[in-house]
Write a structure and sequence with these properties.
The chain is an alpha+beta fold. It has three helices and six strands, in the order H-E-E-E-H-E-E-E-H. The chain folds into two domains: 43 residues; 101 residues, Roll (SH3 type barrels).
Amino acid sequence: MDSDKNNNKKIRPALIIITVVITTLLLGYVGISKTIEYKQKKVLGLTSDNLSEYQAVFLDNNQVYFGKVARIDSTFITLRDVYYLQADKKTQNLQEYEKEGEKLSLVALGREVHGPSNEMRINLEHVLFIEDLQKDSKVVNAILSQKQGGN
């Protein structure tokens, strides 16, 4: 009987120490990952003090995606609620559309034949820059109109 009491007295402090160590490690991991994510967002100009609801992400292949930056890690930027511009005429140069007056359409990602989800992870190596969109921009108005069913 006394042996059991002595064993319980020895086990309790060990369990408390193990619990404290595990909790400290978990909190440290969460804190470090949040700090890294914040620093990456700050480098891209996406800190919470200037983050608007939608951003334009410009890639090195001349493609532009519009959406909400959900996450940035060391390799990828995750964009949600994604839209892109599509022209009536097939060409690779967006400036050419504007010069020739071609009609541009805003398309929600996910309506393509292969049916992707409306989220994408973009390799940071291909991101040229990211811009916050103003609430009254034509793109944001078109997105909100599509969401309300006004296409």
